[in-house]
Amino acid sequence: MPLPAEPAPEASPLRDIELSLPLQLLKAREAAMAHFRPMLRRHGLTEQQWRVIRVLASAGALDGRELARRCFLLAPSLTRIVQHCETTGLVKRGAHQSDQRRVLFELTSRGRALFDTVAPDSERLYRGIEAQFGTSKLRALYRLLAEFSDAMGEPDPA
User: Distance between alpha carbon 39 and the CA centroid of its chain, in Å?
Assistant: First the structure.
């Protein structure tokens, strides 16, 4: 005699897709990056290359682990990006003073010159975003995003 069919489990309730925090954050990121990508392309840069250049411009020499952490890049991606930036003369590597096993990365004079060229274009875009969205709302957004990141803890890029 066949066994009776088990009732199908009820679907678990899930919030509406418009309330998916990861999707809304990605949507906001894409909205912002749509302004920056064309400018970066005009300068021959990818988003990730610009991130590396921008972090090194503000922080100075960094080891690979810290550079990956600050750029929110996985180590294999960072390796590929830094190799390209070295090949094009934007980044150089050197040994750490106290630990010769550690490699430090820093901008070359060419990398610094590129940063100095791109930065004003980037700032113009920021001013446009601020004008479109509103200064107080943008400041509130930065504050809320920082609070959110602090509350959720330090992300592990791996």
Answer: 16
- In angstroms, the CA 131 to CA 126 distance is 9
Reported as a single tens digit per residue, the pLDDT across 14-52 is 888 888 999 999 999 999 999 999 999 999 999 999 999
Are the beta carbons of 57 and 45 closer than 8 angstroms?
A: no
What domains can be seen in the chain, in order of their start residue? 31-149 (1.10.10.10)
Using alpha carbons only, what angle is made at residue 120 by residues 51 and 137, rounded to the nearest 5 degrees? 75
Q: Tell me the one-letter amino acid at 61.
A: A
Q: Which residues of 45-64 are buried (b: 16+ CB within 10 A; e: fewer)?
A: beebbbbbbbbbbeeebbeb
pTM of structure? 0.83
CA 56 to chain centre: 13
Which residues, 6 or more positions from 130, have their beta carbon under 8 angstroms from its beta carbon? Answer: 138
Give 72-85 as a DSSP string.
Answer: T--HHHHHHHHHHH
Please give the structure tokens belonging to residue 126: 């920021």
